[in-house]
Amino acid sequence: MGFRGRHFHGKAFRFIGTHLESVVPSIREAQGGELRAGPANTSLPVILAMDSNAPAFPLPQDPTYPDFIAARYNDAWTEIFPLVPGFTCCLAQFDNNPVSDLYQRIDLILTRGNIEAQNIALFGADPATKTPGGLWPSDHAGVAAQLVVEEE
Questions:
Q1: What 3-state DSSP class applies to 27?
Q2: How far apart are CA 29 and CA 135, in angstroms?
Q3: How many CB atoms lie within 10 A of CB 99?
Q4: What's the predicted TM-score (pTM) here?
Q5: CA 38: distance to chain centroid?
């Protein structure tokens, strides 16, 4: 897990990048709680970019995701595309499958505080992004968001 206090255009925020447990749900949920109680426990606006391994979609959701939503985090994807699944996981990168087999959204950009999501996009989910040898660039689609830290 990495986190830093950042300034951009004179506005302070905390950026955290992390990857939660993939196999044991109770460990993943505990890690989310530790994250919220530790590095994300700040008065600064928080941007959290993570491979959560906690499906936000489809239902049923992993308990870790609603824990963040209940803690007043906003999901940048659902702010921009509330009715679009936004699948990010998991591609069989070495199988040379002709179409994407993404089936869940676990790669998330969550925000808390005075932050507005303006744009968000997936990368590496379209067959046109495959390598010249026909492999997918990764087993996950990348997620990038344009966020604005607003004045308090």
A1: helix
A2: 33
A3: 7
A4: 0.90
A5: 19
- Show the tokens assigned to 134: 């026909």
How confident is the model over 98-122, as a mean pLDDT? Answer: 94
CA distance 36 to 146: 23
Q: DSSP readout, 45-97?
A: -EEEEEE--S--BSSSPPTHHHHHHHTT-EEHHHHH-TT-----B---TTTT-
- Cis ω on the peptide bond leading into residue 82 (within 30° of 0)? no
Residue 10 confidence (pLDDT) above 90: no
Q: Which two tokens stand for residue 21?
A: 């447990």
Which class for 53: exposed (0-12), middle (13-18), buried (19 or more C-beta within 10 A)?
buried
Tens digit of each residue's pLDDT (9 = 90 or more) over 60-108: 889 999 999 999 999 999 999 999 999 999 987 676 778 888 999 999 9
Q: What percent of the chain has pLDDT over 90?
A: 68
User: Tokens 């600064």 identify what position?
Assistant: 44
Q: Looking at the predicted structure, is the pLDDT value of residue 3 above 60? A: no
